């Protein structure tokens, strides 16, 4: 695939060059397939598969990844068209995938008329945006409301009634539910992306969970479950529970920042701080508005 420069500037990793190139017609066998991405990538499941004109895999060695370059030794000598499927994990822990064809001697076989595909359509963007929205609403309702309870309600000269505190804690519970729902929705979205929306495959889900994406997902789920326990302790009268919950909110903001492009910036620590500050400020603002 030879995407445009504009595609290479998208939020996630993009394939910017391939050797052999998409749609190329070669006169000599291919021994190594190379893919070049717009940023460093990580392997994801069966990162590259190459099928010959008879539908047989032609991988002939171990996959090698160096920063943004992926190499796979192949034995592609049979005349006809070859299908390349690829999937990798970008720096922000988002999977990207696609496919293209090249031919040797002449175009022939089941892939001959297949167009190159970048397997992330509009439906993926909608589902991904929905997952991010649910997660952020959960963050605002959970941590934003608890921070409001600590910094405004508890700090005021007039003590808040039990009814006010219980109403705020109910909002926090709704936020926790949103945080828990966002993670399977995110996993579903990414797994469907790898199959181009053609159904779920257990190997795709397992491959995702074995990457940084799965690690960050488990951390976010763990933070939501821990917050659930802390809110329960607050309802039972734990005096320091709200401060502990707000501290957990900072930790979750750090986890979200690690899963963003902030970690790949030239000054990652500064980008992480900026991302954490932005997320916390938006959560506090929205949480205060809801209250």
TrEMBL record:
Residues 12-104 form the CopC domain. Keywords: Copper, Membrane, Metal-binding, Signal, Transmembrane, Transmembrane helix. It is found in: Cell envelope. It comes from the Bacteria. One of its GO terms (biological process) is copper ion transport. The keyword Transmembrane helix applies. The chain crosses the membrane at residues 133-153, 174-193, 213-234, 241-263, 269-290. The keyword Transferase does not apply. One of its GO terms (cellular component) is plasma membrane. GO terms for molecular function: copper ion binding. Gene3D superfamilies: 2.60.40.1220. Pfam families: CopC. PANTHER family: INNER MEMBRANE PROTEIN YEBZ. This is CopC domain-containing protein.
